[in-house]
Amino acid sequence: MPLDPALAPVFPRTAVVSPQGRLVIGGCDTVALAREFGTPLYLFDETELRENCREWLHEFRSRHPETAVVYAAKAYLGRALAQLIAEEGLGLDVASGGELAIALAAGFPAERIYFHGNNKSRREIEEAVEAGLGCVVVDNLHEAAMLNEIAVAAGRRQRALLRVSPNIDPHTHRYISTGALDSKFGVAIGTGQAEEAATELLAAPGIELLGFHVHIGSQIMELEPHAEACRELVRFAAAMKARHGFEARVLSAGGGFAIQYVRDTAPPSKAQYAEAVVSAVKEGCDEHGLPAPRLTVEPGRSIAGRAGVALYGVGARKEIPGVRTYVAVDGGMADNIRPALYQARYEAVVASRMNDAAEERVTVAGKYCESGDVLIRDIDLPKLWADDILAVPGAGAYCLPMASNYNAALKPPVLFVREGKARLVRRRETYEDVLRCET
Length: 439
Ligand code: LLP
Known about the structure:
Elements: E1 16-17, E2 23-25, E3 28-29, H1 30-37, E4 41-45, H2 46-61, E5 67-72, H3 79-87, E6 91-94, H4 97-105, E7 113-115, H5 122-131, E8 135-138, H6 141-153, E9 158-165, E10 187-188, H7 193-203, E11 207-213, H8 224-244, E12 250-252, H9 270-288, E13 294-297, H10 301-304, E14 308-320, E15 324-329, H11 338-342, E16 349-350, E17 360-365, E18 374-381, E19 389-393, E20 414-418, E21 421-426, H12 431-435
Helix pairs in contact: 2-9, 5-6, 8-9
Bound molecules: ligand LLP.
């Protein structure tokens, strides 16, 4: 049976309800997986991941063939996903030596890797140059000097983009807004610092400047901020050509495309985002007489987010008459900090009883020692009992990569599911893992 249509867009598109009333994803019975692998458990639906990669490629390349779609690894990365991303023909944006190490361990082609970050260390830059990365996205002049020196010493010219800051408010949570003037990321266009940085990069023998990059924030529900950022990027590129004779070959519009987390708020489609970005870049280039550049986009959440579902076991109930009913699950802020950090909202379903009607309004609490450890405030669900399995969709992006060992929590295992088969790509942590780094 199909899912409730109001919830279908927040689950992987393979999700259905079995004749026994259980949630099935990628052809696998989620309750059986929860019993076999324990909870909390994170599932990734391979079909959903691949479809999202293909849809982004199609939506951009059908409008602008010279587009590289680069998956933002910070949304979630493991070896299995890196391999899948490579197979689908995307590039990879890494933001640390650790993410780079995972990518290289997966055999991800170095020339398709972009290295980001606002404070890359000397060691990280050395690792990037040594691995022969396709592109370093330079964030500031401190880093530019190190990159130049390291590349010269290695006898290389490192390809680079310069990250500029356009002063645009994307109307998203302020913790995930990055394009304002008051931001730690990139060099500001408005203050003239972006131009200064560009001229320094152009004069650096170890750096081959390809063009400019902008990323204004994440989970941006509107089209206009993306379009405005692209227009600003093109204006800046045009000014650099007019004043310094430098013609940008690559422009990167960053990521930030939103996904649907809850039933009542749908973001624009991939097609609409692609149209907004491509038309802003093309119109800007026409207006300023620039040749069409190669375009790069960096979706993270919109590839991994919908593919991931977290499964939790239900435990204690606490009814406070006339106030609230708490139902506690066996995970929480250690595996998903987003509700506590950004007031992020999620849906949930009882995976074991999908056909049961909602009976009560509850607050789904985590198990960690903090009152803020609440996954979902006020959700209508069937009456929950111990050992029910609660499934939280939209858990594929920014949950596991931001997971902690708070209360010495063991990070959950990860399964990839596809056509009725589940494969364990990361096992559950053990107490030995938690103790491993103690001397
Ligand atoms: N490119 C750059 C340079 C970025 O900094 C990011 C995300 C992306 C691309 C991908 O953005 P996406 O398409 O996933 O929105 N932890 C926060 C999100 C932080 C995003 C950081 N940068 C959250 O849980 O909402």
